[in-house]
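Work Package 4 report. The design task specified in the project plan requires that, given a folded chain encoded as structure tokens, an amino acid be chosen for each position. We show below one input record used in the internal validation round.
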């Protein structure tokens, strides 16, 4: 069940390319089309075998995305994109992930996103930059993940990106909310001490107390898809800790909508990417891992290298139960699985 980017392009984009294929490559629209075509190569496609599949509305979203890209191309500015992602490792360390810190899965994901920006730079001289907005503090209290673990994950991720991903930058929840008297650069002790205040400020400043979660899920397809994603991963995250239930998924939807509003207000001109399945009408869903499975986010799984050089992904427990794979350590820590030769 592959959810990775497909070479099939949305009909509207293909049609527009035909219409403008004879224009000069410096033309604003044509350049914007080429940029969007590159991004679409990394998009998260939806499997027809999943029950939470959505109607494909990429044709509806394409003009909106083009309009955002054209604003940059018209003035020859670097394209700015943003992606809420990389919160923390799953709390199910027993079955899903190898530990609490970023490993080879995160390295592959960051490299993939950086490569997307570099590929854009090959056809558009000003290039592109991706801002990763960590949403760890938005959800970690619902998943019993300590604030300090969120900090350590984020710091290690930044160190990893600094080595080989120059087109990637980061932002935290504290950059989205208004809390006075905070230092511009946080240290661990200040971050942990302020975590509850960040969460409270998010809901106070961007939350909607009157939201009817069930109605939102029933009437808005993007909300339903996000909810289905939360529910799927929450059940596997918390199966060792709490009984199954929908309350935490509903709470995640409330926090998610507040966070989305904060992102929109703080980065209104950025091209909005997402790791969640969506209709394609309002945001571009991207696959972070070059995998042939539905595990496309590195904090929810492990990666494995096959003997032919390809990469797959899945829960730690499944690879450990498969005799053909062995765990590989890097710098003394388990980092990935590799097929035995």
């Amino acid at each position: 069940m592959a959810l990775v980017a497909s070479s099939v392009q949305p009909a509207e984009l293909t049609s527009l390319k035909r219409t403008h294929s004879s224009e000069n490559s410096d033309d604003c629209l044509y350049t914007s089309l080429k940029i969007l075509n590159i991004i679409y190569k990394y998009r998260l496609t939806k499997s027809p075998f999943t029950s939470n599949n959505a109607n494909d509305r990429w044709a509806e979203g394409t003009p909106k995305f083009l309009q955002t890209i054209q604003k940059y191309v018209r003035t020859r500015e670097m394209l700015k994109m943003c992606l809420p992602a990389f919160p923390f490792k799953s709390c199910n360390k027993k079955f899903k992930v190898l530990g609490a810190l970023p490993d080879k899965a995160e390295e592959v994901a960051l490299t993939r996103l950086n490569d997307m920006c570099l590929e854009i730079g090959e056809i558009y001289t000003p290039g592109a930059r991706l801002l990763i907005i960590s949403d760890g503090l938005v959800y970690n209290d619902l998943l019993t993940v300590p604030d300090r673990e969120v900090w350590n994950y984020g710091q290690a991720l930044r160190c990893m990106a600094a080595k080989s991903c120059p087109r990637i930058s980061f932002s935290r929840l504290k950059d989205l909310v208004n809390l006075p008297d905070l230092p511009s650069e946080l240290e661990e002790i200040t971050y942990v001490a302020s975590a509850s205040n960040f969460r409270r400020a998010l809901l106070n400043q961007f939350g909607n107390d009157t939201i009817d979660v069930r109605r939102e899920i029933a009437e808005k397809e993007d909300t339903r898809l996000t909810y289905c994603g939360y529910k799927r991963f929450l059940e596997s995250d918390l199966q060792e800790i709490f009984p199954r239930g929908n309350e935490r998924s509903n709470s995640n939807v409330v926090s998610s909508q507040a966070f989305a509003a904060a992102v929109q207000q703080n980065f209104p001109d950025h091209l909005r990417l997402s790791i969640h399945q969506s209709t394609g009408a309002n945001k571009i869903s991207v696959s972070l891992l070059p995998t042939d499975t539905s595990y496309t986010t590195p904090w929810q799984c492990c990666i494995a290298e096959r003997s032919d050089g390809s990469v797959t992904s899945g829960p730690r427990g499944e690879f450990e139960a498969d005799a053909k794979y062995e765990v590989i350590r890097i710098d003394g820590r388990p980092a990935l699985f590799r097929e035995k030769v």
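The two ends are 26 Å apart (CA to CA). Validation will be extended to a larger panel in the next phase.
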